[in-house]
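Researcher: Please predict.
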Amino acid sequence: MKKPIKTGLLSFGMSGKVFHSPFLDIHENFELTAVVERSVKKASLHYPYIKSYETVDELLADPNIELVVVNTPNATHFDFALMALQAGKHVLLEKPITTNSAQAKLLYQEATKHNRCLLPYQNRRFDSDFLSVKKIIDSGKLGQLAEVHFRYDRFRDFISPKVAKESPGPGSGLMWDLGPHLLDQAISIFGKPLCWTKTLGHFRLNTQVDDYVNFHLEYPDELQVFLTTSMLVVDAQAAFVIHGTKGSFIKQRADVQEKQLIEGMSPDNSAFGLEAPGKEGILTIVCEDGTFFQEKIASEKSSYLNLFDSVYKTIRMGEPYPITEEQIICQLEILEG
């Protein structure tokens, strides 16, 4: 009989309510056991049997909890993850796992020392639109790749009330918010770049942090990869543009999981993770006679539940976790460079 992993959340804000608890609740191999709620107690309204602690120390002292989800503000990730590992817990750690590579290396060392797993939570690897892009690239239909663009576009011209994101300091700003998603997706496909450059912008009135970021990554065979995110794009551009010697693939950002979760859809709903009609990617291939052939490519259904499958298999079965230490250190070196 399988033994479910009893899990505690360090926060029941948006990430706890949307990206973690729905999956921990329905996954047969996890048990959503406890949460830290310092003031307002809301988790029990959704999960009646959950324990609510007022401090991180209280949750870490619970001997029944095996896995701790560190989903607190970026600047706190290192301290809380270190505390959890030293308390003998496995750790599922949101992006960015730390605000510099030296801290990340120390966490991996502590995980090894205590025979525990440090597992970065990079859920955007399991977006349906990204997986369709990866499938097209892996197929070789585009030939030798020459130019790749990944981007996250938003329009939010006001200053958010989230102080941790809008105040200068470690882990604040758009680069540390969405940059880890873009970098993880690129590194998961192409590996560590030969070299890179980074450009930041500050455009919103009275902003104290960056609200525009571009990374230019250079790879062998002159492959150029551009990663862009901006808070000031009224007309969202294609999220994925890939050009190769034999064709191109253009894809809008179309993953529906976050929207469905915010609206309250359970991950076990048959419609969860299904891309809406009309959001298909466009694949254009150069035929042998020089003519062009174009077709629409629909994304396959995807679910962040697959990430939790990987967490379980790593903790219980010792299988390698797909998001590696080398990939995370590379990501942080680019972010801090």
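Model: The first helix runs from residue 14 to 26.
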